[in-house]
Specification:
The chain has 145 residues and is an alpha/beta fold. Helix content is 20%, strand content 39%.
């Protein structure tokens, strides 16, 4: 599993010009579910995302997590993060989980984060989405499990 975390001032996702998810300050999580990922992998990733200290404290140090700043999380599936780009000029997606498993684990990730008390919005799995964001910093981290 790969999760690209972006600290944002705000973010939203649209499908066919319909707003389906939106947050104010917090984290935009672009997530790829890969072969071999399990509910346990998802739970560990959700815990890490929920507790990841990527927000500044009063001294300007990244010591606060999203909950501590009263932030929100927008979880968007992005299977292209699982691409193997080592050979040639066309990415291979053989590392991506089968779609029904990917969908289930994606929803579980959002649910686990929400169960920590953090407001969560989501994109729409396997849809052509338009994601808009204002990256704060910019601050971006790649987490892998």
């Amino acid at each position: 599993m790969k999760a690209l975390l972006q600290r944002v001032s705000h973010a939203n996702v649209r499908v066919d010009d319909t707003l389906i998810g939106e947050i104010n300050a917090g984290i935009l999580v672009l997530v790829a579910i890969e072969d071999g990922d399990t509910p346990q992998t998802v739970k560990r990733m959700a815990e890490k995302i929920s507790k990841y200290r990527m927000f500044s404290d009063a001294d300007g140090k990244m010591n606060l997590n999203v909950s501590q700043i009263g932030g929100e999380v927008l979880v968007v599936s992005q299977f292209t993060l699982a691409a193997d780009t080592n050979k040639g000029l066309r990415p291979s997606f053989s590392r991506s989980a089968e779609p029904s498993l990917g969908h289930s684990l994606y929803l579980q990730l959002a649910e686990h984060i929400a169960n920590t008390g953090i407001p969560v919005s989501t994109g729409q799995f396997a849809a052509d989405m338009k994601v808009a964001l204002l990256n704060d910093g910019p601050v971006t981290f790649m987490l892998e499990m």
